[in-house]
Amino acid sequence: MREYAKEQIIEQYGKEALAKIERADYTGNVLLVYADDYVFEIIGGVLTNHSMSIDDILDLLDIDMDEYAEENDWEDWDFGALKMLDVA
């Protein structure tokens, strides 16, 4: 992971989030994460050389966020908490 990406993650989400990303087993140069005041969860990673929307990544990873939230015992989820992180 490039230094600028590490610095940006620390600035936006904290050192704990960076440590979680560094321990995670993911593929790709873009991570889809769920980050709100209570949760920082890595949803998945994709390898891309073009811009993608969050909906594009969810479709590519075949993730239904309602099912994902239910499987992880979340009471609810917020689309605005889904973020794409450049980790290349």
Q: Which radius of gyration do the C-alpha atoms yield? A: 13 Å
User: Helical stretch count?
Assistant: 4
Main sheet overview = 3 strands, antiparallel
> Which residue ranges are poorly predicted, with pLDDT under 50 across at least 5 consecutive positions?
none
Pairing-aware structural class of the strands and helices? alpha+beta
Our estimate of the beta-strand percent is 15-25%
Shape: globular
Q: Give the helix proportion (percent range).
A: 25-40%
How many β-strand runs? 3
Strand order of the largest sheet: 2-1-3
> What value does the average pLDDT take?
93
**SSE order, one letter for each helix or strand:** HHEEHHE
Cα distance spanning the termini:
5 Å
Can you give keywords for this protein?
3 strands, 40% helix, three-stranded antiparallel sheet, alpha+beta, 88 residues
Secondary structure: elements and pairs:
Layout: H1 3-13, H2 15-23, E1 30-35, E2 40-46, H3 54-61, H4 65-71, E3 82-86
Antiparallel strand pairs: 1-2, 1-3
Helix pairs in contact: 1-2
